[in-house]
Amino acid sequence: MKIEVLYPEICCLFGDKANMRYLEMCLPEAEFIRTPVSEMPRFLSEDVDMVYIGSCSESNQEKILSRLIENKSRVEELVEKGVVFLLTGNAFEIFGKCIKTPDGKEIEGLGLFSFYAQRTIPKRNNSLFLGKFENIEIVGYTSRFSHSYDISESDAFISVAKGYGSYTDSKTEGVRKNNLFGTYLLGPFLIQNPLFTEYLIKLLGVENPSLAFKDEIMKAYEVRLAEFKRDITFAE
To answer: pTM value?
Structure first.
């Protein structure tokens, strides 16, 4: 099994690096490739089972997009083949139609989805989050300078129970296509959501996933889930 972590030195905001550190503990036999900014993604020239891209600054987001847009047909091919993609924070905006800036500029995206992202700089949007993907309850938080609009129901990832979705009043959060999952949720998303992590590992071909520190992270998940179901402030 081969998992590529794309540009970890710049896609590392909000503790997102912990996602792959944890997955490495769950999949000790897998090969993890950490591709630096100085190199082209390995998935462009060889087969991989999973690609991970974490949160980054807006300037680095544009740098990554400029690297990938020339090879968008290869990216689309891998998504259609069912390769697993996990995109956290603002990383999934790269896969939309475009990113709009406050000064009216439009940055062309990869176009795998029809949505567009609108930056809200200097306003930062902060929210706790509670939602559901299939029968799995999802918890997390978001802190971002953008929202995404025009995500079709068929392309949405998570239904919203509390907190901000893809924009403040959205009933859905993130995007999904085949085995590609994109979410604004930040930090150690896979640690916070162990049931989704098991789901993801099964997509990678592991029938009976063995989560690292399962008892501890399940207990933490249950405590957070109970807290988020209380009447507390979710967004500012």
So the answer is: 0.95
